[in-house]
Amino acid sequence: MKQDKVISAILLIVALSAISGLALITVFIFKEGLPVILRIGGQQFFLSSKWEPSTGHFGIFSMIVGSMVVTVGAMVIGIIFGLGLAIVLTQFSPPGLAAVIKPTIELLAGIPSVVYGFMGVVTLVPLIREHLGGPGLSVLAASVVLGIMVLPTITSISVDALQAVPRLYFEGSIALGATRWQTTYMVMLKAAKSGIVAAVILGMGRAIGETMAVIMVAGNSLKLPHSILDPVRTLTSNIALEMGYASGDHRQALFATGVTLFVIIMVLNSIALAVSRFRPQRGGVR
Amino acid sequence: MLRNMFRLLSCGAAIALVLLCGSCKNDSQRTVNVVGSTSIQPFAELLAQEYNKKNPVQRIEVQGGGSTAGLQAVTNGLADIGMCSRSLNPDEAQQFSQITLARDGLAIVVNPVNPVKGLTVEQIRGIFSGRIKDWKEVGGQAGPIRLITREEGSGTRESFVHLVMGKENIAHVALTQESNGAVKALVKGDPAAIGYMSLGLVGKELNDVSVDGAEPNAKNVLAGEYKLVRPFLFVTKGTVRPGATKFIDYVLSPEGQKILEAEGLIRAK
Q1: Which domains are delineated in chain A?
Q2: N or C: chain B end with fewer CB closer than 10 Å?
Q3: For the whole model, what pTM was predicted?
Q4: Optimal mutation site among A221, A236, A269, A277, interface B, most CBs of chain B within 10 A
């Protein structure tokens, strides 16, 4: 009995120290970043695109837009392919095939992001430059690379969600005379909706937070993009590009960029958490 | 999600431990850390290699990170020698002692298929500030100019701003790359691109244009004809460890200088 208590105390300390690491990071980022936002003024900081640290101008609007468009692009690609794959794997393919393909897709998550970036620079960027115009380093290139990077997240969580739908739903729908696709579309996807939404939002968090691959393929220019062939700088690349050099106000402004990112990702993760906990109660099946 | 976070944090802790142990194995008495500008890095690596051939006991470790990062590393004591590829500002000059190990031309590079062979400083300033937008305005084929710049804080960028831009800003539309290598790769692949980089690193795949009529080469830099020149500095602070001093002496020796010249840099004096 005594042993139990000791062990539980030790585990508690370990758990708390892990959380306190997180808390420290949060406190530190906000402590470094908030004062400069307050001093510059929220409007100047968030709604101006003029980022010239050497002359004391810190406006991150173009980077917020950059992060948004790149992420939206990545999600379009990620959802089409990731969700498509999840549907095929769970509804239309023999179970043996799914058992092979799902771990393969999950392997994608293990490839370092710099490799994705390199592949993008070497293959995708010249393709875009030669066939679509523009500098090649662009929203499009970043979106495609990120879209591939979020595939494992979206696919594997969606597969889990679809597999968790009770067999009864499927059988019931087929028994009522629905085709396979009708069953998938009208029953399975609806039943797995909360899991799929969580998958998408987690994928989105990954896309917003990704840095290395984006620095390599997005071009990092400070101008607001006008088309998907224009280069952009995202919030993460701004921090990573300049952190090594920055000091004083510039450094704090980069922390403030981090605060912005932190808030965006926290909001997304909270939504994901809330959605995945939400279980629709549609009466009477069981 | 929380569990994932735990996993991440514990992974991080494990990695930190491994790194710590790795670094305590290195005999800190023997390793001289040289940190800073990515422009100087390849030359310093070469010098360190040659130096190590003669002094196998003394290990020299060269790391990149950027000029300002190098200065910070020296300040924190993480590096024995900082590499800085721009002139120190008056504030920094007071804090650090500097040794010029070589000088480097700043080359303005374009794609080899670009017919433009020469520009004036005035034109370069116009191009990078965004006033000149089309190659035909400077004697090339009609088409938009694609600017490639370095990130804020890079020594190469600061030298370029200092030598060319003066009070003007580099246009926001410029693509930002974080190393000489990335600038090189981009200019190599894009016929419409223009960038700036260390003359010693241009190589044969790019075309470095003449500036104000002077070809960028060692002769013109020494004669003072080619104006875009910056110093390559070794920066130290306070007392310097004997091992580091020996390495600096080696770099400044005729032998070290000869290696640098063979690589396309220009001797210090």
Answers
A1: 57-277 (1.10.3720.10)
A2: C
A3: 0.78
A4: A221
